[in-house]
Amino acid sequence: MTTESRRAVLHGALGLGGLVAVWALLARTVFAEKAIPTPWGVLSGFADDGIAFYIANFSGTVKEAAIGFFWGNLIALALAAVVLLVPLFEKVITQIAVISYCVPIVAIVPILYIILGGAESPGDASPTAVVLAAISVFFTTVVGAVLGFRSADTTSLDVVSVYGGGRWKQMSKVQLMSALPYIVSALQVAAPAAFLGAILGEYIGGVDRGVGPALINAQQNLDVERAWGLMFGCALVAGAAYVLLGLLGRVVTPWSTGRTA
Prior knowledge:
Number of helices: 10
Strand content: under 5%
Order of helices and strands: HHHHHHHHHH
Largest sheet: none
Structural class: mainly alpha
Oligomer: single chain
């Protein structure tokens, strides 16, 4: 680890420690009469629930988010490729992406649940949660991929054209390489969005285990420590997905960071 990396880790640790100290101070003073637990209370609640509780609830939600993430991004990338191959469809696909982004997810959850229902058996993924996760990633990936495809160097495109290559050759040989950094960045943003979409899909019901039902039970039982523990667990999972995709981007597109492969 370089000196710069050590300094960054140290600054991050000091910043995190400062935030925890401020949280503990405010929980004991300004918000003493509010339902805000102390850091120690959240840690105690986490220990009381046990790691098995979090694994049992997060595993189902992560599964739903992963399925929705895969299909939502696959459809988005396919439509972005269609825009490049057939520019006539650009307005239609762009409008579909914008509509999917503008329609409040909370408003369509009941409709999707009526149409798709919940999990068929305990442990299965909820179709409603999967579709919401897919919708949550669609707009980001479509826009990122289209912008990436359009960032291709025109000279390189002309070279492919001169040597007899058509639109497909231009896209596969030049535009795809140019778009990869944009696509990876879009996938980074899409990963936490997919997880959030899956949680919202579970809120309507139809699943026996998951982050959504666990949050609802904590709210109904006024278990503040568990609710906060679940919140930090969600942040950890979403952050881990973001970091992993960022590391993948450094491997797949080393030129985007100024390094050679």
